[in-house]
Task: structure prediction
Amino acid sequence: MRTEFVLGDVTIHRLVEQETGFVPIHEFIPGLSPDLLEENRAWLAPAGLDASGKVVLCFQSYVIRTPHHTILVDSCIGNDKPRPTRPTWHMKTDRTYMDGLAALGLGLDDIDMVLCTHLHPDHVGWNTRLQDGRWVPTFPRARYLFSARELAHWQAKNAEAPLAHLVDSVLPIVAAGRSELIGSSDAIGDHLRLLPTPGHTPDHFSVLLGKGKGTDALLTGDAIHSPIQARYPELSMAADADPVLAAQSRRSMLERLCDTATLCCTAHFPSPSVGRIRRWGEGFRCDPV
Result:
């Protein structure tokens, strides 16, 4: 399984925390009809669908090393987090993520920035760790970059009713003075630019990598979750805040990548998770690299 990609003076590493059957695929993608699933089962089942009919998802971060910075994009699930509706996330205590970071030769002090494409629980979990009963920034030197609009949205939701992942994985970063608010189309240093891909959440963004205006790779975040959504971009998943806008963002992103050399680095596709986008009828496919 390939986990490192060298693009000029930038290196991308996959940092995988879990890869598993998640929930029944019809629950995950409500618009996927039984007939359409059967029509596509032969190519989807080897990796994207398990024997019980659950969608297979990879939960991972990407570590980007540029000549000047080491950047963690999305911080995955985390340990000790109360997530009772997600048994494989709930009060987890394993060493998988930290051992993976160490295998890259990195310690907690080596991360310069944590960039969150959006603020869902499986993208902010390792923002913090439990220390002496308190949630503290996992990466003590890092600046944590959040979309200002995205953060405001979730803070308002949290004010209505507390959200566990805001309380344990986002608000402690703000309180510690480690957060930096950005716009969803900002440039981050010399090698990263943000691409607005709203719909999954109000100000979700994807990440473009490349010096200047070049685009060597695109990190999708949750603009897409499963290969079946590349084949049929109009299929939105159950947690999309605005399914119509999410579908528009997804198709626009895939059109941008289609038949180019740009690597598509997905957050949740089954391993190897990284490929190049090619046309497939009225939709697309992701050919692994």
